Amino acid sequence: MADDNGSDAGVVRAPKGVRSASPQRKRRRLDPEDREREIVDGAVAFFAEVGFDGGLRDLAKRLGITHQNLFRYFPTKEALIDRVYEEVYLGRWQVEWEVLLADRTIALEQRLTQFYRAYLQAIFRYDWVRIFVFAGLKGVGITQRYLELVQARVVEPLARELRVTTGLPDTAEVPLLPEETEMAWGLHGELFYLAVRRWVYEMKVPDDLDTVVRVAVVRFLAGAPSAMRLLHEGTLRAPAPRSGRRARPARRNPR
Amino acid sequence: MADDNGSDAGVVRAPKGVRSASPQRKRRRLDPEDREREIVDGAVAFFAEVGFDGGLRDLAKRLGITHQNLFRYFPTKEALIDRVYEEVYLGRWQVEWEVLLADRTIALEQRLTQFYRAYLQAIFRYDWVRIFVFAGLKGVGITQRYLELVQARVVEPLARELRVTTGLPDTAEVPLLPEETEMAWGLHGELFYLAVRRWVYEMKVPDDLDTVVRVAVVRFLAGAPSAMRLLHEGTLRAPAPRSGRRARPARRNPR
DNA sequence: ATCACTAATGACCGGACGGTAACTAAAATG
DNA sequence: CATTTTAGTTACCGTCCGGTCATTAGTGAT
């Protein structure tokens, strides 16, 4: 059954000598490094589009190679996918971001604005957002670890800054409430959700992300003191009733 | 969620001949309505967990039937998936929510708090969130249409309310800026992102969602006026070309 | 020109997929 | 009871999947 029929010779021999028959007809032999680069880039784009259930044959077709050739470079599909994770997540986190956020010589508003502008510049992309969501749904550990990084390096530091700017006790005295951390997640979440609306749900979003970031940061910081007081009005006895607007709600914090 | 394992549906029957195999469930014959109900419920849970690429044989195994039997109720897999969409999205949108949001006899803060508490009660669920995200990645139109509904019935009305509460011109005079709509998306986005963190990335989130909603709404409304003024400072008076942020009542000065 | 090296490929495998057809048996009807 | 109806099953089809192996052909060194 294997190669029984000599009548095969299915490949048309006639135009064989002439090598310029069609644009990509011929076998292209690359340095392994170059080929691997092409495969990884192609895989990132491919899996971002169709998800990790996409077939290797389809990926190979896009790359202009056969799917078997992929196995020369990655022993299994899983290995290729792991490489895609590396490619997308490793090295895109800038430690300078953490430095910037911690630099109290700059106003918090400026720090947050600059950070989120830089952060969005790094992640507000088709590949990054979709692979991040695909991986999350699949339950890949790397996404959880990434979010724990965000929480430890961005969200919780921000929540601690709010303690300072609102004149509440330091977190050394009173640990962060889950609701305070959640509040800081709010800023992060609304900006990430913007990326999801754009790259997952294909909605129209404003072109000028810098303005969106600025507005979000301003609103966040302008609103945070009220929310912090609300959260802490039970834990400490500094009522500090605000005269403006509506009178202070008679009801305390539920539970 | 109907029943787990009702292997014996009222019929007590002596094992017939050779067919001992006690664990083997006998053929269970249900009314088509009941069976269809089981299939749909099972399909919602199944596809929410593994995504729409999950195999029908696996789904059938969970249901205790053979995969061929699914075709008796749904002509194709696609038809079953469409039914899942219906099941999850249709009828879960409450028109009372829109009425509540538009009721100006209630303070905006109360309206938003009540609405988002009710909204989260409806959508903050494993099935809903994950299927919504899976469907978005797949590019299913129903999710886009759903988000357009949210924008038209929740987000833009909220943005218009902000015009009123901040004393800015009505939207009849000055149409909503994209950045204003985006601002209103911010509140929605941070709460939806909370659901994504919980049900997609399996992170710990506060147990008391009511408090989270209340804090988010208070912060949103307290911060919105500053952000609105920022957005409209060019609209209302002379452009003031450069300089990011200066001639404004910067009430809150960090440090 | 040719040789060695090795990218790249063609052929193939077992299994899982969505889907079809024929058959089996549990309930409804008389 | 016998008969009819039809929910549910066994058996199977063509296709595609990840992965293996022997073979082919592009390229630098000689």
Into which percentage range does the β-strand content of chain A fall?
under 5%
Poorly predicted sequence stretches spanning 5 or more consecutive residues of chain A:
1-24, 238-255
Number of H- or I-type helical stretches of chain A: 10
Shape of chain A: elongated
Task: Give the biggest sheet of chain A.
Answer: none
Q: What is the first-to-last residue Cα distance of chain A?
A: 76 Å
Q: Helix- and strand-based class of chain A?
A: mainly alpha
- Number of spatially distinct domains of chain A: 2
Average pLDDT of chain A works out at 86
- Work out the number of β strands of chain A: 0
Largest interface (C-beta under 8 Å): A-B, 61 and 60 residues
Rounded to the nearest angstrom, the radius of gyration of chain A is 27 Å
* Assembly type: homodimer
Secondary-structure element string of chain A: HHHHHHHHHH
Brief write-up:
Chain A is mainly alpha-helical. Chain A is built from ten helices and no strands. Chain A binds a DNA duplex (30 and 30 nucleotides) through helix 3.
Q: Which secondary structure elements does this structure contain, and how are they paired or packed?
A:
Two copies of one chain form a homodimer.
Chain A: H1 32-50, H2 56-63, H3 67-73, H4 77-89, H5 95-102, H6 108-123, H7 126-138, H8 141-165, H9 178-199, H10 209-232
Chain A binds a DNA duplex (30 and 30 nucleotides) through residues 1-3, 26-32, 35, 55-57, 65-69, 71-72, 75-77.
Task: Describe the structure in your own words.
The structure is a homodimer of 255-residue chains. In chain A, helix 1 (32-50) packs across helix 4 (77-89), helix 2 (56-63) packs across helix 3 and helix 6 (108-123) packs across helix 10. Helices cover 61% and strands 0% of the residues of chain A. The termini of chain A are far apart. Chain A folds into two domains: 30-88, Orthogonal Bundle (Arc Repressor Mutant, subunit A), CATH 1.10.10; 93-232, no CATH class. Chain A is an all-alpha fold. The longest helix of chain A is centred in the middle third of the chain and has 25 residues, at 141-165. Chain A has helices spanning 32-50, 56-63, 67-73, 77-89, 95-102, 108-123, 126-138, 141-165, 178-199, 209-232. Mean pLDDT of chain A is 86; it is low at 1-24 and 238-255. The first copy, chain A, is elongated, with a radius of gyration of 27 Å. Chain A contains ten helices and no strands. Chains A and B meet through helix 7, helix 8, helix 9 and helix 10 of A and helix 7, helix 8, helix 9 and helix 10 of B. Chain A binds a DNA duplex (30 and 30 nucleotides) through residues 1-3, 26-32, 35, 55-57, 65-69, 71-72, 75-77.
